[in-house]
Amino acid sequence: MDCFVGIDLGSTTTKAVVLDTAGQIIGRGITNSRSNYDVAAQVAKQEAYTSARFALLSRELNARENITKEDREMLEAALLAAYRHELFLGSLNRLENHCREDLENLRFANTRRELSQALEVILQGIRETADSIFVPESVARSDFFRDIAGSAFIEAASDITRNGGPAFDSMVGMFDRNIIPVENETETRGFEDLLMAAYHRLPKGLLEKDAELAELLKRIATLELNELRTVGTGYGRVRLPFPRDCIRSEILCHGLGAHLMFPATATVLDIGGQDTKAIQVDPQGVVTSFQMNDRCAAGCGRYLGYIADEMNIGLHELGPLAMASKRRVKINSTCTVFAGAEFRDRLAAGQERVDIVNGLHRAIILRAMSLLARSGGITNEFTFTGGVAKNPAAVRALREVAEENYGKLILNIAPDSIYTGAVGAGTFAMRDIVQGIKPGQEAA
Amino acid sequence: MTTAAKKDASQERQKTMIAEHFEKLGHAKENKQKVVYTFVPGNLTELLANFDLLPVLPEINALQSGMRGKTGDYIHLAEKSGHSEDVCTYVKADIGMLKSGNIGPTGEKIPEPDLLLLSYTGCFTFLKWFELLREEYDCPVVMLHVPYQGDGNITPEMRQYVAGQIREVLIPELEKLSGKKFDEDRLREDLKRSAKAEDDLVWVLESAKHKPSPIDAYFGGVYYIGPIFTSFRGTQDAVEYYELLRGEIEERIKLGLGPVTPDGVMNEEKYRIVVEGPPNWTSFREFWKMFYDEGAVVVASSYTKVGGLYDRGFRHNPDEPIETLADYSMGCYTNLNLPDRVNLLENYVRDYDADGFLINSVKSCNSFSAGQLLILRELEKRTGRAGGFIESDLVDPRYFSAANIKNRLESYFQMIEAKKAKG
Question: Does the structural domain B2-181 have CATH classification 1.20.120.1200?
Fold first, then answer.
């Protein structure tokens, strides 16, 4: 089947979507951007294709009459979990190979044996962790190999040190050195091999639910997905190995993406890791004006990241924590570098953690409001995108401040808003083909 | 997007003129020539020439230092001696240059001033800048008080007020400094030459109405305004330079050629842009490349009017030599009120058939930056064309974020494209 791909290379994550010829999203993929955009683009795209094939599988299973809805859902979930498990183990094997190669270095002559044994135990620990994570009923904390493997590695390493094993630092150092090459490589097995390996992981009882499952999986795995065009966007876009006309600015992609998700969108606010964009679009999703933060990333997603680090909690816990606050502490500085100092200073002044965090959320929204005002204000409907749109406290603050300044508004937030730029890029790819532009030709 | 670079004869001519001027400055003290520091907006070059005084333009020194990559250190030196980060970076670059020996762009030492002449007080920073230099050099200062065009025009009273200051304060001061008598006939002759060169400059700037435009009226434009805005107005050199330049551009139009860029001739004109605000000097070439790589040509700019709005009809008038100087001092771009600036830019967008207008908001300059967001909104409303906004600085390299600016410019050009495609 024919399809189009949009890739958004952000400063924190790289996103890809696959669209069918009707412009419907059939697959999504996301990965951390790391230092290598080429690999990030490849991984995100692979993931998007994987998710597209799983979507096609779901469509096929849906059409079958010999399997109940409940069984079908169970089967799909188990297969997806097993597939991810396979991918994870593939990465883990690569990590092991790199660590072993690393240990061959002369400087480990005296500690090699000890470290090698420790590595064995650590890897076993990670495998056990993976067994408990990649099950249909479990919601993964993070999709990224670095996060899952990293925390399991550290946990196992600290147990080993506590029990008289090698120094904690020497083991964590081994992880830090070797995770980078792992992240810069892609899975060598193709989709079909991975899917069949996942299939063989399914419990027997589940396999019996559909006698023709293996055949169906083979068909889905070998179905040709004919990529007609890919358009890339985001900060890393210049690194993409595409012709110039297959690269679009993220401003245009976010504007169009937001319009596609919510067609009545007039104003878009995107708060990402390193930049905030205020965009005005016309009724066709064409950008008419925009403003971005300049010179510094104060008040962007990374600011909240630093605060979370400062508090030693996960970024995703920050919003819910702030939601518990009933008071508002006024904070003026949104400087990312000063975030920690600001936070500690408030604590020292006797203010409550939840109230401070609430104030911090309001502060970044106030900064975004200034950009919005500069871009032409907020016109109904108002769509909020980017990683920070997932934070309930930021959303609450935005709703309050926007309404204080511009009156009652419809505030749209899509659950998959992180893909807004990629959706815009994919749609540009589709439109280019419809307009007869081939790769290498400048768009009109 | 471009083909081979070659220096035009006019460029070579200008280079020689500048080199000769700096050489004169380098030997001013031994030749017993007096030196006057003054600024570009409202400069009274012909009047200084009347007394054989040599002008030095500190903001031109600052921007040239910026282009030569020296201002980072200069600004650092000025900040070390107590000037805050918020102070205009032209000032700090000048102070830093002074502290580093005052070596000009040709390697010659720039002589100390015998007089500081401020002929445009619309910029408060200029005032403070000369107060600082007065402390450093302990020399006399003359400041003309120049009224703002608050109501959008120059009234007879305003004219009389400034002309009175020139006659009663400035000329006697210059006579005293130079030991020479004011020669009105000579001034008339110089002003005639000024008007002649001004005619050709306007022709050059307006050549951008052609499609494709034979010039870039911003990045190229800053070179074209050089002689007339600085030390050469009223000289035969300036007249000849502009004749030469005009001839070259006539030729370009005949051949249907686009502007000359550092990488050669620009072959394809994809976007015609009007730009408001000064350029960034520390990354001037990189900044320009971001335009010509995308096929964007600047067809009109307000920055090339900081030394006078000749394209709106002003010419130095030899029949009223003092009054014309007064008009000139009040007529520079930053002395216009906001509605007038909007009208001017709106006319540029229409007259030059621009696809959009872009504001480069520089951190240093309040004279330019105040009101720019209002200008942006108003122009969008009036013209329906795409407006863009980027931020940088004059000569502080810390305030030129190439990745951000490139990102915004690319987005802006693509926005124009999307708008065009929609029709």
Answer: no
A70 vs A77: CA distance, rounded Å? 11
Segment B213-265, tens digit of pLDDT = 999 999 999 999 988 888 999 999 999 999 999 999 999 999 999 999 999 99
Cβ burial of A283 (10 Å; 0-12, 13-18, 19+) is exposed
Question: A-B interface: how many C-beta pairs under 8 angstroms?
Answer: 55
Closest to A123 (Cα-Cα) out of A195, A178, A193: A178
What ipTM score was computed for the predicted complex, to two decimals? Answer: 0.76
- Does this model's pTM top 0.90? My answer is no
Q: Is B65 helix (H, G, I), strand (E, B) or coil?
A: helix
What are the residues of chain B with a beta carbon less than 8 Å away from any beta carbon of chain A?
A: 373, 377, 380, 386-387, 389-391, 399, 401, 403-404, 407-408, 410-411, 414-415, 417-419, 421-422
User: Looking at chain B, which residue has its C-alpha nearest residue A284?
Assistant: B422
pLDDT of res. B85: 87
CA-wise closest residue to A423 among A284, A301, A256: A256
Residues from chain B contacting residue A295 (CB–CB below 8 Å): 391, 399, 401, 404
Among the residue ranges A165-179, A424-438, B140-154, the one predicted with the least confidence is A424-438
Task: Describe the crossing of helices A145-162 and A168-183 by its angle, rounded to 10 degrees.
Answer: 160
Strand partners, B261: B264
Quick: pLDDT tens for B177-226: 999 999 999 999 999 999 999 999 999 999 999 999 999 999 999 999 98
At residue A441, does pLDDT exceed 50? no
Please tell me what DSSP assigns to residue A29: E
Cβ count within 10 A of residue B286: 13
Question: Nearest CB to A444: which of B389, B401, B421?
Answer: B421
| CB B29, CB B20: distance < 8 Å | no
Q: Please give the pLDDT value at position B327.
A: 97
Dihedral angle computed from the Cα positions of residues A115, A118, A124 and A126, in that order, rounded to the nearest 10 degrees: -80
Give me the residue spans of the domains in chain A. Answer: 82-183
Would residue B54 be called left, alpha or beta, if left means φ above 0 and alpha means ψ between -120 and 50 degrees?
A: beta
What is the predicted pLDDT for the residue at B407? Answer: 87
Residue found under tokens 């000890």? A114
